[in-house]
Amino acid sequence: MSAAGRGPAAAIGATAGLVYLFFYLPVLVLVLFSFNEARTGGRWTGFTTAWYARLADNDQIRSATVNSILIAVIATALAVVVGTMLSLALDRHAFRGRRAAEQVVYLPVIAPEIVTGVSLLAFFSFVLSRLNDLLGRGAGDALRLGRPTVVIAHVAFCTAFVALVVRASLLNFDPVVEEAARDLGASRWTTFWRVTLPSIAPGVLGGALLSFTLSLDNFVITFFVAGPGATTLPIEVFGQLRRSISPEVNAVSTLIFAASTLLLVGALAIQAGAARRRLLQFRQDGRPGGEAALLDPQHSPQHTWEET
Amino acid sequence: MAATTFAQRRRRRIAALLAPGLTWITLVYIVPAALIVLYSLLSPKLGGGVVWELSSDAWNEVVSKGRRSEAGWGTLGSAAVRALAAAAVATLPLAACARWLRRSERGALAVAAAVGALVGVNHLASSYNNYAAIFARSVAWSVWATALCVGLALPLAVFISSRRSRITKNALLVAVMIPFWTSMLVRTFAIRFMLSNTGPLNSVIESLGFDRVVFLNTRFAVLLGLVYTALPFMVLPLYAAVERCDRTQMEAARDLGAQPPQVFWDVFVPLIRPGLTVGSIMVFVLSVSQYLVPTLLGGGKTNMIANMLDLQFGEAFNWPLGAAVATVFSLITILSLYFVVGRRDRAGLL
User: Fold this and answer.
1) Has residue A151 got a pLDDT over 90?
2) What would the mean pLDDT of A254-281 be, rounded to a whole number?
3) Closest among A253, A221, A222, A232 to A65, alpha carbons compared
4) How far apart are CA B327 and CA B33, in angstroms?
5) Which structural domains are found in chain B, ordered by start?
6) CB-based contact (8 Å) between B331 and chain A?
7) A3 vs B263: CB contact, 8 Å cut-off?
8) Percentage of chain B with pLDDT > 70?
9) A234–B17 C-beta distance less than 8 A
10) B229 to chain A: which residues are within 8 Å by CB?
11) Computed from CA positions of residues A21, A22, A27, A32, in that sequence, does the dihedral angle turn out positive or negative?
């Protein structure tokens, strides 16, 4: 900070360095020890990939991974469509109750997960027991908590995040282009598919990747709504973690970390490409740029903070 | 077929775009919350679930002073009034401090007053009943975690923002976003592994010739875990705010003779307030509802609200009691959003 002088600048730099160390040291140590020979303990005894090999033979981990991916794919596919629709309505149209609709969309961002988890458990149990009564299903073939309930829960918060991300990219898209297409005789559908969607595609894709990550990583809500039939990867890992600390858990954690990092970098690369194009446009138009907001696709600070 | 006006078609189009998303979120976030409030007034069923008979037991247990009291609706009323009064007496100074903290030009003094009030509230609540104690503990730890996150994230945000090259800036930002998007479970486990009794940290300590230190299942471990998991949520909004703030104003203040602390509290802090508010709310809400951190790092000895909910819904199977706790928890979250955070700052969040 220029106002604070040179001494504080050194302190700021040192704190920043320590924070990065704090961020990465535990994770890197975890990754390193997933290659350690010793079964227990924090001493390095030699390099091995045996834990990864054992992971490949672990049926529970494998089926949990399949479950996780299946749920994340379905939830993301639904959330992308529903979330994009929401963001189009909220961004393109002024209508009565828009404020209230916005608050509902932001609900999954600020609601404590644990409350959502337990209330969904109560809600699904209630609905399922009524359904079972209605369909006359007994103990043998009763409908239970499982993949569908997890998907329903995941779609809700993924939708909210997709809506936020897509809205951020809609803010940088000039509706005049749409009007031009309409004036030239394109139907609403054609305009959407040929004009709007290509322009906001990076936002939609970024939203999809983030929604996929969120679904894949979600623990607390899934913990309550999964039931015994739909164990996802985080829940399986949590269970193993509580039973024993084995390097296998380190290995699977390393893979999860690698996967989410790759997904994030992918999402960022897509957004950065779009941001660069937009930046050029900003420079031409002389409109204020907001690269920071574009880099942070989850919240749209550029939009929201301008209101204050 | 009646001809539809342009306005009607437009309204239908908006409704069609909104309906699926709003219905879905309402079904998952609002309807179950209403059901939970209803459940808190029913009787528990053995093995989970509820019996559809009105009962005041759950609320009686939550609001009555000391141990559980077996009584009807009449005593519940007086206990509720007493509990509300106690909560008001305990939290009013805290709320006052929080408001002062937002407005005051004497920032450091306001922080000190808030810390005093927080310690006082925690002390008072722990003598009320077990639930109040856990609530107060969760809130207090989350406030500490939020404060620590501000302390760590602000220098980092300023550091990133003051880099000249855009590439460096973006690289440093991505380095914050990776932990932001890494699974909470993996990050909590990383801390647990690091701190475990035979873990890497203790190996280093032993090889230096010292005795092993028990880190896990202590308050220290829980607070460390809260800060570790929530810190990226503070850095990103703070960075955006610092990046946005007009540095010439600080230079002007310096030129007009303000001392560095005054520039910091009276110029810099008000300028970055929107980011500070968004970050604090994210960190606070995330921390106060943490389940993984107190479970994996506190070992059940240092329970937070989420552990209590898990216990009532998962093991003790007293759903109405859990529902009452969840209702109180939601109320606290909503109230703190609406009263502690001002209207203008809320506009920044939503």
Assistant:
1) yes
2) 81
3) A232
4) 8
5) 71-127 (no CATH), 130-344 (1.10.3720.10)
6) no
7) yes
8) 92
9) no
10) none
11) positive
Min Cα separation A2/chain B (Å): 8
CA atoms of B151 and A275, how far apart (whole Å): 31
Residues A222/A236, Cβ–Cβ less than 8 Å = no
Interface contact B196-A210, CB threshold 8 A: no
Where does the pLDDT of residue B117 fall: very low under 50, low under 70, confident under 90, or very high at 90 and above?
confident
The answer, yes or no, to whether residue A294 has pLDDT greater than 50, is no
Q: Mutual orientation of helices A6-33 and A247-285 as an angle, nearest 10°?
A: 140
- In A170-229, the residues whose Cβ lies within 8 Å of chain B are 210, 213, 216-217, 219-220, 223-224
Say how far apart CA A233 and CA A218 lie, in whole Å. 9
**Residue (of B241, B216, B231) closest to B302 by Cα position:** B216
Q: CA nearest B278: which of A207, A80, A293?
A: A293
DSSP for B233-244 reads HHHHHHHHHHHH
Please check whether residue B203 touches A, CB under 8 A. yes
Q: How far apart are CA A122 and CA A120, in angstroms?
A: 5
Task: For each of the domains in chain A, give its residue range(s) and CATH number, in order of start.
Answer: 31-48+58-307 (1.10.3720.10)
Cα angle vertex A69, ends A50, A151, to 5°? 140
**Chain A environment of B310 (Cβ under 8 Å):** 114
Using a cut of 0.80, tell me whether the model's pTM lies above it. Answer: yes
pLDDT at A154 over 90: yes
ipTM of the complex: 0.87
Q: State the best of B26, B164, B191, B193 to mutate against chain A, taking most chain A CBs within 10 Å.
A: B193
The percentage of residues in chain A with a pLDDT greater than 70, rounded to a whole number, is: 87
